[in-house]
Amino acid sequence: MNNHEIDYKIYGDDMQFVEVELDPQETVIAEAGGLMMMEDNIQMETIFGDGSSNGSGSGLMGKLFSAGKRVLTGESLFMTAFTNQGHGKSHVSFAAPYPGSIIPLDLSELGGRIICQKDAFLAAAKGVSVGIEFQRKIGAGFFGGEGFIMQRLEGDGMAFVHAGGTLHKKELAPGETLRVDTGCLVAMTSGVDYNIEMVRGIKTALFGGEGLFFATLRGPGTVWIQSLPFSRLASRVFAAAPHRGGSTDEGSVLKGIFNMFDGD
To answer: Domain for residue 2, yes or no?
Structure first.
């Protein structure tokens, strides 16, 4: 085993958080901003890249290459490692960024590799490699909704990803095909064939309200689907928010939410 073996418990229904139990000297890594709480014996340290031991290359160049891949997915060069420096068990918890579900993934039972949308990763046992997955097909890259690059989680330990709204897990038999709105795909095992298909019929494409493309997933493998992508939630809030120039107090709450999404 290359990864730290961690135990966990997920709390909540719609706004979940995961509590990770660490034995002495065990470590969990997480994206910046995911921490909810931690006990006294947990030491927090910023690390370059994902801290995995199986990254490409070695030394400084290997770390630079590993961290550079994360930049391509829109993530930070750095991650945070949480290590139990005490003599007994300690706990650290990570919260979901918006309403939905946290998905625990045991990579040792999923072929050692999971492909997920680039903002789905929440935390993982130290040793799990958080890299990038280039879409081999140009159509999937440019029209896939998640861009040409997705995230790849590799290793034999536990990883946690987040899905918006209600989560649906589906097993695809060999040759079985599932068509999904591009933003609703959360994750899939590496054996699933992923492509983009254009909506048939010009009237359906232009006036159907579902976009011009959807993802085609072909088995065998497992896929995880979310009912509420963050992009869809943000667009609905944006549409309901008043214009910036408005002076009415009625929309002040929605305007505040809009400003948060806009980075103000």
So the answer is: no
